[in-house]
Amino acid sequence: MHRQLYRLKLSLTLWILLAGSLKASTLHFQLLGYPKVSLQGFFKAIDERTSIGRPDSKILYQASLQTSRLKQPWFISKNDKLLMSGSRFKNNFWEWLVRGGFAVAVSNMDEDELAKSVAAFRSPLTRIEWKVLDSTSEASKSFYLIKSLPACKKSYWQGLYINQRLALILVPYDIVGHISRGGAAAPCREITKEDSVRAMINAIVVAFTTDYKNDQIHLPAILKRIRQ
Amino acid sequence: MNWFLCAFLILFFILTGVWLGIYGMKRTFLIAALRFAWMMPMLTLFYPQVARHQTSRAIDIEHIYLLVDDSASMQGLSKQRSVTKILNFINNYCQSNSCKVEVDSLSRIAGSSDFTETKLVNATDLWVQSKKDQHWLILSDGGDHQPHLCCDQLRKAESTGAVIGLLDNKEKNVWIHSVRPPITSFDSKSFKLHGVAERNYSKKQTIQIVFEIDEIVVKTLNLAFLEGERSVSFTVDIPGVEKGKHKLTSHILPVVGEKQIWDNHFYSYIETQSNTVGVLHLLGTPSWDGRFLRQYLKSEPKYDLVSFYILRDVWDSHGASERDLSLIPFPSERLFMTELPNFKVLVVQNFMLYQFLRPKYQQKLVEFVRNGGSLLFIGGERALQRGDLDNSRLDSILPFKDRRGKKNNSSKVLSLFGFDQANTKNTFANYQSVEFNILPNTYYSTSNPNLNKMVSLADKLYSEKLSFSGLNILKNFEVKPDVDVLYHAKPYKAGELHPLLLSSKVGKGKALWLLTDGFSQVIQKSPAANHYYQAFLNAAFSWFLQGPGGLNLGEDSTSSPPEKSGIVKDLSNLNSKLTLERLSSALGASLILYSESGDGEEAVGRGLDEITAWLGAVFEKKESVLDEQLQITESKNFFWYWSTPWVYLSFLCLLSEPVVRRWFDEE
Question: Could you give the CA distance from residue A98 to residue A92 in angstroms, rounded to a whole number?
Answer without folding.
Answer: 10
